[in-house]
Automatic annotation (TrEMBL):
It comes from Brassicogethes aeneus (Rape pollen beetle). The keyword Transmembrane helix applies. Keywords: Membrane, Transmembrane, Transmembrane helix. This is Protein RER1. The chain crosses the membrane at residues 39-57, 63-81, 143-160. It is a multi-pass membrane protein. It is found in: Membrane. PANTHER family: PROTEIN RER1. GO terms for cellular component: endoplasmic reticulum; Golgi membrane. Belongs to the RER1 family. GO terms for biological process: protein retention in ER lumen; retrograde vesicle-mediated transport, Golgi to endoplasmic reticulum. Involved in the retrieval of endoplasmic reticulum membrane proteins from the early Golgi compartment.
C-alpha cells in the first residue's frame, strides 16, 4: 500500500514539477516580449492575415470568423475604456468628474481597463485558437456570410458610436500619441541648474 502511495505521489510530483517548469518558461518568454510593442503587434497582424487567408482560400469557417471578430471588438472596447468609469464617479456638486485644470489639482492619468499587453496577448491567443478551429470540419457551419458581415458592421458602428460619445462626455483620450508631456519637478530643477 505504501509503495502505491509513493509511486503515485512521485508521478504526481513529476507532473506538478513539469507543469511548473512549463509555466515558468511561458512566463519568461512573455516577459522577454513585453518591451517589443511593434514586433508583437506585427506578429499578431501576420497571424490574423494567415487566419484571413485560410478562411478566404477554403471558403468556410465564417461563424468562427464572426465570433473572433466580436471577441476582438470587445477586447478593443475594454482597451479604450478607463479602468475607473467616470460615469460612476460623480461628485455631489458636479454633473460628473473633470480633469484637473490647475497645477495644484490632483493628476489622474488614464488607466485602461484592459492594458496593452493583455490586449495583445488575448488577441494573439484567440487568433491562434480560431486558426486551429479552421482545421476541424465540425466548426465549418454553413451560413450566408454577407449577413454576418452586416451584423458585425452594425455592431461595430453602434458600439464605437457609444464609446466615442462616452469619451467626449467625460473628456478623456485613451491614446498618448499627441498629448503634451509634462516635466516633473526634479526634471525642471535639473534643467535650470545645468544652465
Amino acid at each position: 500500500m505504501e509503495e502505491e502511495l509513493l509511486t503515485g505521489g512521485s508521478s504526481k510530483g513529476v507532473i506538478s514539477q513539469a507543469w511548473t517548469r512549463v509555466s515558468q518558461i511561458h512566463q519568461s518568454t512573455l516577459d522577454r516580449w513585453t518591451p517589443h510593442h511593434k514586433a508583437r503587434w506585427i506578429g499578431s497582424a501576420v497571424l490574423l492575415l494567415i487566419f484571413g487567408l485560410r478562411v478566404f482560400t477554403k471558403q468556410g469557417w465564417y461563424i468562427v470568423t464572426y465570433a473572433l471578430g466580436i471577441y476582438h471588438l470587445n477586447l478593443f472596447i475594454a482597451f479604450l475604456t478607463p479602468k475607473i468609469d467616470p460615469a460612476m464617479d460623480f461628485d455631489a456638486e458636479d454633473n460628473g468628474p473633470e480633469l484637473p485644470t490647475r497645477a495644484n489639482e490632483e493628476f489622474r492619468p488614464f488607466i485602461r481597463r484592459l492594458p496593452e499587453f493583455k490586449f495583445w496577448y488575448s488577441v494573439t491567443k484567440s487568433t491562434l485558437i480560431g486558426l486551429v478551429c479552421t482545421f476541424f470540419e465540425c466548426f465549418n457551419i454553413p451560413v450566408f456570410w454577407p449577413i454576418l458581415v452586416m451584423y458585425f458592421i452594425t455592431l461595430f458602428c453602434i458600439t464605437m458610436k457609444r464609446q466615442i460619445r462616452h469619451m467626449i462626455k467625460y473628456r478623456y483620450l485613451p491614446f498618448t500619441h499627441s498629448k503634451p508631456k509634462y516635466q516633473g519637478h526634479e526634471e525642471t530643477a535639473a534643467k535650470v541648474s545645468s544652465k
